[in-house]
Amino acid sequence: MKLYDADRALVSFKSRKRAFRTHELSLVFGEEGGKLRGTIARLEKAKSLLHIARDLYWHNNAEGGMVPAIEEIAVALRPGEMNYISMESAASLWSVISQIPVGRITIVTTGKEGEFPTPFGTVEFIHTARSRQYVLENTVDYPGHALRLATKKKVVEDLLRAGRSIELIDWEEVEDDE
Predict the structure, then answer these.
(1) What is residue 146's DSSP assignment?
(2) What is each CA distance from 87 to 53, 76, 106, 136, in whole angstroms?
(3) Which one of 8, 34, 60, 137 counts the least CB within 10 Å of its CB?
(4) Order of strands across the sheet with 104-109?
(5) Which is it for the CA torsion 57, 61, 66, 70, positive or negative?
(6) What is the phi-psi region of residue 80: left when phi exceeds 0, alpha when psi lies from -120 to 50, beta otherwise?
(7) Which helix (H) or strand (E) holds 140?
(8) 3-state secondary structure 148-168
(9) pLDDT digit string, tens, across residues 67-94
(10) Of 102, 106, 143, 100, whose CA–CA distance to 128 is shortest?
(11) What HEC string does 24-88 produce?
């Protein structure tokens, strides 16, 4: 597919989607095999597509999406898993700690642990064996975001369970949730 046509096909997703798996690109372009690899290579060379991780690409020419880029990438890295913002990232959002993590988001997932540097910051995954129902009961909807947010109490529980530092926690702020 020609570069212009391929880019226009991706732009048609605009604010709905910016992170694509190879099989999704195959569907969007109607291509497979070497032809698909060639189109992806041309888009990468033109800086329209960024290779984020194995089998994951970011469409760089899309307008700002509905959710933060790093969260959209996190969801795409662990599709089909329960993922939610927790640890230091959520603690900062709830003002349980005063520090703001810069260039990183920590996500608890039912999938594999791992750390992925991206152009938008590092995505750190921490594994949990908790059930889907337990995760839903201990997280809240976070409007304007791709992921749910751990409750204050769940954030502290996750930090303790993972052996993370709790020195910076404002315990009065945690208790204020009751």
Answers:
(1) S
(2) 23, 20, 6, 16
(3) 34
(4) 114-118, 121-127, 104-109, 83-85, 148-150, 139-140
(5) positive
(6) left
(7) strand 139-140
(8) EEECHHHHHHHHHHCCCCCCC
(9) 899 999 999 999 999 999 999 999 999 9
(10) 106
(11) HHHHHHCCCHHHHHHHHHHHHHCCCEEEEECCEEEECCCCCCCCCHHHHHHHHHCCCCCEEECHH
Tokens of 149: 């947010």
User: The tokens of 144 are what?
Assistant: 């304007």
Report the run of H or E that residue 116 belongs to, with start and end. Answer: strand 114-118
The position carrying tokens 């992806």 is 40
Q: What Cα–Cα distance (Å) separates residue 161 from each residue in 32, 33, 87, 156, 157?
A: 44, 44, 10, 8, 6
Which tens digits make up the pLDDT trace of 43-62? 999 999 999 999 999 998 76
Name 139's bridge partners. 150
Structure tokens at 52: 């984020």
User: Residue 142: helix, strand or coil by DSSP?
Assistant: coil
Q: CA–CA separation, 145 vs 173, rounded Å?
A: 23
